[in-house]
Amino acid sequence: MQHAHAEHLPDREALLNIAETLREIVFPGFYGMRRLREQDVANHVSTRLVAVEAALHEQIICGLSYGASHPSITAPPVDQAADVTMAFLQRLPEVRRLLSLDVQAAYDGDPAARHTDEAILCYPGITAIFVHRIAHELYSLRVPLIPRIWQEFAHAETGIDIHPGATIGESFFVDHGTGVVIGETTKIGDRCKVYQGVTLGARSFEKDERGQIKRGTKRHPTLGNDVTVYAGATVLGGDTHIGNGCVIAGGVFLTKSVEADHVAQAAAVDIRVRPHHGLA
């Protein structure tokens, strides 16, 4: 309940500021400085990149120092912090490309959207996938703590909980989003769509001979390309594979694989309609 070496802990507020700066870089003109002229965008982005490099490098040093103090955590040596920072920044063009496809998927998948600008500025699913994509890059670089700090900020802001370890393909759209949970070892293909209340989770936790939960195993499902999971559905298990083109109907509880181009749905519920005579 206390930490004797607090200097090794990343600074949450500093990391949230870094995430906001990264959002300015990915979506220039939408966040941060407004009224950018076309000819000023490149200079603006370069300036923000310089600022974020120094701040992020400092936090990555803290994260790697924290990892070095815990034998159970596998992380790069602290003296590689500059390389890790540069590797992350070099991935930003690819992150931006993926996010452009996510924004287009949100617009294409929601008839209520009037413009892609609306998706960027208003949709919690875009906020969640933006944070996930930057957090996933640091997770892939084995930086401790920082990806989870970003993830839990997005979770609190949007109600969408995507573990930074989850692998998500192109053109991903979370519609509405409240209550969505996507676990660490989930793999999602291209052009997938999930609705509110969806859980892509673990069926059970395998334990070792000491009764401790085994970590680092595939616990969460795999979705192929062009899969739609409707509201309230639950898909569990590391050996559960949902094939390309499948539809998982709302409210389904699924713990087994589904072959490509199938619909998984629960039995119809017997609904009775009776006259309403007012409350007693």
Explain the layout of strands and helices:
Blueprint: H1 12-26, H2 41-68, H3 81-90, H4 92-109, H5 116-122, H6 124-140, H7 146-158, E1 161-162, E2 167-168, E3 173-174, E4 181-182, E5 187-188, E6 193-194, E7 199-201, E8 222-223, E9 228-229, E10 234-236, E11 241-242, E12 247-248, E13 253-254, E14 263-264
Parallel strand pairs: 1-4, 2-5, 3-6, 4-7, 5-8, 6-9, 7-10, 8-11, 9-12, 10-13, 12-14
Helix pairs in contact: 1-2, 1-7, 2-3, 4-5, 4-6, 5-6, 6-7
Structural features:
UDP N-Acetylglucosamine Acyltransferase, domain 1; alpha/beta; single chain; 280 residues; 2 domains; 7 helices; five-stranded parallel beta sheet; serine acetyltransferase, domain 1
Summary of the model, kept short:
This protein has 280 residues and is of the alpha/beta class. The protein has helices at 12-26, 41-68, 81-90, 92-109, 116-122, 124-140, 146-158, and strands at residues 161-162, 167-168, 173-174, 181-182, 187-188, 193-194, 199-201, 222-223, 228-229, 234-236, 241-242, 247-248, 253-254, 263-264. The protein folds into 2 domains: 1-159, serine acetyltransferase, domain 1 (Orthogonal Bundle); 179-280, UDP N-Acetylglucosamine Acyltransferase, domain 1.
